[in-house]
Amino acid sequence: MFVKFENLPRHSRVWIYQSDREFSAQEIEFISKKTIGFIEQWTRHGSDLKGSYSIKYKQFLVLAVDEGFNNVSGCSIDSSVHFIQELEKTLNVDMMNKMNISFKSGDSINIVTMSNFKELVTTNIITSKTIVFNNMITTKGELETQWEVPVNTSWHKRFLVS
Fold first, then answer.
1. Does pLDDT of 83 surpass 90?
2. Residue ranges covered by each domain of the chain
3. pLDDT for 101-125, tens place per residue?
4. Cα distance between residue 101 and residue 156, in whole Å
5. CA dist 44 to 79, 80, 87, Å?
6. What's the whole-number average pLDDT of the chain?
7. N or C: which end of the chain has fewer CB within 10 A?
8. Contact 75/45 with Cβ under 8 angstroms?
9. Please, what sign has the CA dihedral across residues 117, 132, 29, 83?
10. What is the pLDDT of residue 56?
11. How many alpha carbons lie under 13 Å from residue 10 in its C-beta half-sphere?
12. What 3-state DSSP class applies to 60?
């Protein structure tokens, strides 16, 4: 069952998928239509899930489920992964590479490999104050407060040169 993202409670579980490139306006329209369709039929052992999505910065797809309504199961998580994989194939993008790291540079969103991120830290292009995206967060509340954070307050701080 699809609901508006803003209507989900802060404890709702989220999964963040970052694209290796920005989506076009047509792709965002396509993703929105497909994601609503997916959420409308998304179930846990035959029971509806109350879910939503958000597209952030034309590059991140956030799926969310109100686990106060129904908990997700392994099968329902698997179906969402298959849905993302289908989007990847259709749009020719990589949305599941957890080795990519996203950070802000002015108004731009940059995605680099972990080894490139380390390099950028050693050359001071990325500093402790650079804003990174912590895609490891798990709730809507964390998305609102802990997703976009300085390197020195995220798991990325382990790459900082002492």
1. yes
2. 5-91, 100-159
3. 999 998 899 999 999 999 999 999 9
4. 9
5. 10, 11, 21
6. 92
7. C
8. yes
9. positive
10. 97
11. 5
12. strand
